[in-house]
Amino acid sequence: MDDPFLGEIRPFAFGFPPKGWASCDGQLLPIAQNTALFSLLGTMYGGDGRTTFALPDLRGRAGMHVNSAHTQGERGGQESVTLTTAQIPPHSHTANCSNVAGTQTSPAGKFWAQDSDGNVVFNNAGGATMAATAVGNVGGAPHPNMQPYLVVNYCIALQGIFPSRS
């Protein structure tokens, strides 16, 4: 393996940082023992800038190149999202109905029907809208918001060639 640039990040297929590397897990390092790396990273990823600085934290994160909308060191996104009613597009569901008197005590997996006293609980007109109270609310729980992934061990070089700007 060629000598890395100081501060270079590489993925490794094994679960530990090699000698001269550290996991990209946001750990704080002392500036006094890592002055060259601090001169490259500063407090972009955290630390107090007086005695400590932080390494990038890629746990649960995908890297993204700097652009006009996103600055280096910026964190964003969420691992899970709870949608609000306003974020769900209007939609409809068909309901199967029967005009035979209902006799089941549990509605699970059953048809809409007349109740056992003969009261009609459906509308004969096609395309009728159900009352808001006909079906209970669902949702409200977060769902995963992650692209397909493969976990590897991202590490940053603590030693190596100081990168030039040429």
TrEMBL record:
Pfam families: Collar. InterPro entries: Phage_tail_collar_dom (IPR011083), Phage_tail_collar_dom_sf (IPR037053). It comes from the Bacteria. Residues 7-62 form the Phage tail collar domain. Coiled coil: none annotated. This is Phage tail protein.
